[in-house]
């Protein structure tokens, strides 16, 4: 008999675990509470524009887990790589190249010419060669202060981290996480990429693999409760009835986990992660009926810490002749939910639009504005820890998502934690007996 695995949550993490196990011959049932798959990477059509509600870009796709999945599952995804020549930092008084490539570093005015640029290049080499690793319990802000590195080199390192970690306070990133992240990113030749056809095409591909391999996707199935017997999960209760299985993957955020595991063996293990704050951002995406030509597809306002991307320059997502711009403002945890502050950040984005997209208000056909979108369910700052993929208290429950330990940040955590969960279940083999070696 094929092993029966129940996957709860149809976001990128749940979908990728389910697709991988289905392809390996498991009998998988994926349960998603929403009518549509994708979770925070869902694509919603609005007046002819395809708005990606969450994820925008993939960082270092050449070394990412999505690439492993793409190969193993033979996913049909088209990639469109970000063009660094069309990206600029807006410094207020002038625009300058991003130091995303050697050429960009040579040209950028974020650093003064000469020795300081050379020092920054040396920092890149030291990071890649693992000569810098940070220290447990020390933030990158503190670590840099102690290091005595040139102030502008410190500033640039924090500016990069602000974009990659989607944070207003990059100095609070743990130094060890910072260096681990850049050891990978500085090696990449594909720093930022977009998905042709948007994230919806990836979601559809993962769903295709699940279904084509004989497994099942059930939407509008909200898990209310988990059933335990002798320390093992034996089933999950949903509005659609009871689903039983051998292995259970929970790819739903901590606040949902707390509800469904209430009163069970795992409740105490999960509860510390409820105290950790998510990384919320303000999102302001606009659909324009007529394209407004701009020389740049990505602009980062360094002072205001907001960015805009012309996503329609990379992939078709608008009605004929239209344009779709995505803009995000990073927030400090204490700013989340503060309406006055949100209004100020919204204005900062509008000022960026006014400056670089003259006449956008007249062309505005559709928009998506939210003051609070979870870019990551547990923010990587201070002592906030990501959840493990498994707890000692239960041998057949696994966890995946961007709140779970893995490689990278944002959706990379969903893919990498999902991949690890898949590995653990596959190592157990189809019989339910744990295989001690992959060669067995
Ligand atoms: C504005 C914004 C911009 C972003 N930009 C980027 C980016 O550029 N690059 C990047 O890599 N990432 C980005 N992200 C992050 C990325 O979108 C997320 O990391 C990723 O989508 C998370 O996927 P997940 O499967 O881990 O979690 P989720 O998407 O949260 O999936 C959880 C799923 O579980 C379902 N669920 C919840 N409770 C239950 C229940 N009781 N029963 C059944 N189902 C349930 C939910 O409906 C959901 O579908 C961005 C996010 C946002 C919000």
UniProtKB/TrEMBL annotation:
Molecular function terms from GO: oxidoreductase activity
Pfam families given in the database record: Amino_oxidase (PF01593)
Annotated Amine oxidase domain residues: 12-261
Gene3D superfamilies: 3.90.660.50, FAD/NAD(P)-binding domain
Membrane-spanning ranges: none
Family (UniProt): Belongs to the carotenoid/retinoid oxidoreductase family. CrtN subfamily.
Protein's name in the database: Phytoene dehydrogenase
Organism whose genome encodes this protein: Tumebacillus algifaecis
């Amino acid at each position: 008999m094929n092993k029966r695995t129940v996957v709860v949550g149809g976001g990128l993490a749940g979908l990728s675990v389910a697709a991988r196990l289905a392809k390996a011959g498991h009998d998988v049932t994926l349960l998603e509470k929403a009518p549509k798959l994708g979770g925070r990477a869902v694509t919603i059509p609005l007046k002819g524009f395809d708005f990606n509600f969450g994820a925008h870009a993939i960082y270092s796709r050449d070394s990412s887990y999505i690439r492993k999945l793409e190969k193993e599952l033979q996913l049909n995804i088209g990639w469109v790589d970000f063009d660094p020549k069309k990206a600029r930092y807006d410094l207020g008084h002038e625009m300058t190249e991003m130091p995303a490539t050697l050429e960009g570093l040579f040209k950028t005015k974020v650093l003064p010419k000469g020795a300081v640029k050379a020092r920054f290049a040396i920092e890149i080499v030291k990071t890649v060669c693992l000569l810098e690793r940070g220290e447990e319990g020390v933030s990158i802000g503190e670590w840099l202060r102690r290091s005595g590195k040139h102030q502008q080199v410190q500033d640039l390192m924090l500016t990069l981290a602000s974009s990659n970690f989607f944070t207003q306070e990059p100095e609070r990133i743990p130094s060890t996480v910072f260096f681990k992240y850049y050891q990978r990113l500085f090696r990449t030749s594909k720093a930022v990429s977009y998905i042709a056809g948007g994230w919806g095409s990836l979601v559809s591909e993962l769903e295709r693999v699940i279904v084509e391999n004989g497994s099942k996707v059930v939407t509008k199935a909200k898990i209310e409760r988990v059933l335990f017997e002798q320390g093992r999960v034996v089933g999950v209760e949903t509005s659609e009835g009871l689903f039983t299985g051998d292995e259970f993957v929970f790819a739903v955020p901590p606040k949902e986990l707390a509800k469904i595991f209430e009163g069970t063996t795992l409740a105490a293990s999960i509860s510390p992660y409820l105290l950790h704050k998510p990384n919320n951002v303000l999102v302001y995406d606009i659909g324009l009926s007529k394209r407004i030509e701009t020389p740049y597809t990505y602009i980062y306002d360094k002072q205001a810490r907001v960015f805009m991307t012309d996503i329609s320059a990379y992939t078709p997502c608008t009605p004929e002749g239209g344009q779709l711009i995505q803009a995000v403002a990073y927030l400090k945890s204490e700013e989340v939910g503060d309406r006055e502050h949100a209004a100020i950040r919204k204005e900062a984005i509008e000022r960026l639009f006014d400056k670089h997209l003259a006449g956008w208000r007249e062309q505005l056909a559709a928009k998506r504005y939210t003051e609070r979108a979870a870019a990551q369910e547990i923010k990587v700052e201070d002592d906030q820890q990501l959840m493990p993929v498994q707890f000692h208290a239960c041998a057949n429950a696994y966890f995946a998502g961007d709140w779970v330990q893995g490689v990278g940040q944002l959706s990379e955590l969903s893919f990498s934690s999902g991949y690890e969960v898949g590995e653990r279940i596959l190592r157990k083999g189809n019989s339910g007996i744990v295989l001690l070696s992959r060669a067995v």
